[in-house]
Design brief:
Blueprint lengths: L6 H8 L6 H10 L1 H10 L18 H21 L3 H19 L5 H22 L6 H12 L4 H25 L15 H5 L3 H18 L14 H5 L3 H6 L3 H11 L3 H30 L28 E3 L4 E3 L24 E3 L3
Helix pairs in contact: 2-4, 4-5, 4-6, 5-6, 5-7, 6-14, 7-14, 8-10, 10-13
Length: 360
């Protein structure tokens, strides 16, 4: 893990809070070898991680995340100095690293953390779009990157299959006696009840049925999916006493720990697809404004000169919403509610109602 990483401090800087120019310049200078390594790695199909300097211990997932954050911080540093083209260069590389993490075919953690960082980089794209110093060629470069998107549904399916492979390996070890039940929780401790009242084959069947349902739902918009797949709905209705007295109580406890938020995997796919769609639309609106000196009355005015078609909201499958009055492009989000672009209640964070502001 990179020495510099402090979650609170880094996120504060990336949100342009508590900005300390001298400290940030020193940090970026110190970790220039890491940035150089990332540049070289991006030229290859896969990353080749190695120790750069003594004292830096690489863990693949966290190294990728920290690499994205280093690139983001470098890009933000350039943007604050109005070095827009260089800032975009760094953000494009950060986006590529995040996409590689999402599409790595790894387990759920890879997929969701990749999307988390992609959303952050695209948010920075949107801030650059609103910068008065941005030039048409800068907008075209960002649009090219956004249009060159990855297959998020395919990445989700690959991740779900890898997650099931992980479970199958763990269950096989438990059945053979080679592994403890805790291997199914990544080595985390499990309760005595889970150990004693655990039926591995029945538990594996529950896990597999749910993964299969998630794979069937993966291509769907959020409004069409089952929010509580498999046996999740019936198990959630049980009291703790009922759960403990039920057959395979230990397996059911493990299942609830891993799958209580199973639909969030698909919701994350919808979040990144909608974020990409909103970023693409914001760039088109900015290009329209450069040509016409005003905002379009509707998003349909952007077709076909700036967009092939109005991008779709992955939460409900309808065209993205747009309010020239409130100067926002927005999605209905996970609550599937259209508030007309009114952000006065502050309801814009995460995927509750994803929104980008038209800030020029």
């Amino acid at each position: 893990m990179l020495d510099f990483y402090d979650a609170g401090r880094t996120q504060s800087w990336l949100q342009e809070q508590n900005w300390n120019q001298a400290e940030i310049d020193a940090l970026l200078t110190q970790y220039q070898p890491v940035l150089d390594m990332l540049d070289r790695s991006l030229a290859k199909p896969r990353f080749q991680w190695k120790k750069v300097t003594s004292g830096i211990d690489y863990n693949p997932i966290w190294s990728l995340l920290h690499g994205v954050e280093l690139k983001e911080l470098s890009a933000l540093n350039h943007r604050r100095k109005n070095q827009i083209t260089t800032a975009i260069d760094e953000d494009i590389q950060a986006l590529e690293i995040a996409r590689r993490l999402e599409t790595s075919g790894g387990v759920q953690t890879h997929f969701e953390l990749g999307i988390f960082k992609e959303v952050q980089v695209l948010d920075e794209f949107c801030r650059i779009v609103g910068n008065r110093a941005v030039q048409r060629q800068d907008l075209e470069r960002m649009r090219e990157q956004v249009d060159h998107d990855v297959d998020h549904t395919g990445a989700l399916c690959d991740s779900l299959r890898s997650q099931m492979d992980f479970y199958n390996h763990g269950f096989a070890g438990v059945v053979s006696g080679k592994n403890d039940v805790s291997v199914l929780q990544g080595g985390m401790p499990v309760s005595g009840i889970t150990r004693v009242l655990f039926q591995p084959n029945n538990t594996r069947a529950m896990f597999a049925d749910t993964i299969r349902q998630l794979l069937r739902d993966a291509p769907l918009t959020y409004d069409k999916i089952d929010k509580e797949p498999g046996p999740l709905k019936s198990l959630k209705r049980l009291s703790m006493n009922e759960l403990l007295l039920s057959p395979n109580a230990g397996g059911r406890q493990l299942y609830l720990r891993d799958f209580s938020w199973a639909s969030s995997w698909i919701r994350e796919k919808c979040r990144i697809m909608t974020t990409v769609a909103m970023t693409r639309t914001l760039i088109a609106v900015r290009l329209y404004w450069l040509d016409n000196g005003k905002l379009p009355a509707t998003l349909d005015e952007l077709v076909p000169a700036y967009l092939k078609s109005v991008p779709v909201d992955a939460y409900d499958g309808k065209p993205l919403r747009y309010s020239p009055t409130h100067k926002v492009i927005y999605s209905v989000g996970k609550e599937l509610t259209d508030r007309g672009g009114d952000m006065s209640d502050g309801n814009k964070d995460g995927d509750k109602q994803p929104t980008v502001k038209i800030a020029w």
